[in-house]
TrEMBL record:
It comes from the Bacteria. This is Uncharacterized conserved protein YloU, alkaline shock protein (Asp23) family. InterPro entries: Asp23 (IPR005531). Belongs to the asp23 family.
Length: 138
């Protein structure tokens, strides 16, 4: 693994230069890929990532995603909250597939594993469920 913690893309035969991808970019891509699926309420970071986000040092798109660089590829951990009433195994499987497919399409990086940690369930607020009834005159 390199000292500057950048992922070096495979060298092609062109002499245009080299491509390096920062782990933060992978976190953002994986975070967006996970949060765009139905059944995922939100991604959940830890205390340190929340402080870094408030200080403007980290984007909120990468919150809840941890990337470990290896010699063979990357290992990704995702911490998320699901919506109430969805099949958690199905949502987690879709998250894994979407992250791997998105990273393969955008970066051609070898993803070794995507570990999904469900850390909570989001229940619908009482006000959200009553709002449509009030508008309909019920």
């Amino acid at each position: 693994m390199s000292e500057n913690h950048l992922i070096h893309m495979s060298e092609d035969k062109s002499d245009l230069g080299k491509v390096e991808i920062s782990p933060e970019v992978i976190e953002i891509i994986a975070g967006i890929a996970a949060s765009e699926l139905d059944g995922v309420a939100m991604l959940r970071g830890n205390f340190a990532s929340g402080v870094a986000e408030r200080l403007g040092r980290k984007s909120s798109h990468g919150k809840g995603v941890k990337v470990d660089l290896g010699d063979d590829g990357v290992n990704i951990e995702v911490f998320l909250i699901t919506n109430y009433g969805v099949s958690i195994p199905d949502v987690c499987h879709k998250v894994q597939e979407n992250i791997v497919q998105t990273l393969k399409n955008m970066t051609a990086i070898n993803v070794l594993s995507v570990d999904v940690h469900v850390v909570g369930v989001h229940f619908e607020d009482k006000n959200e469920s009553e709002a449509p009834k009030k508008e309909q005159g019920i």
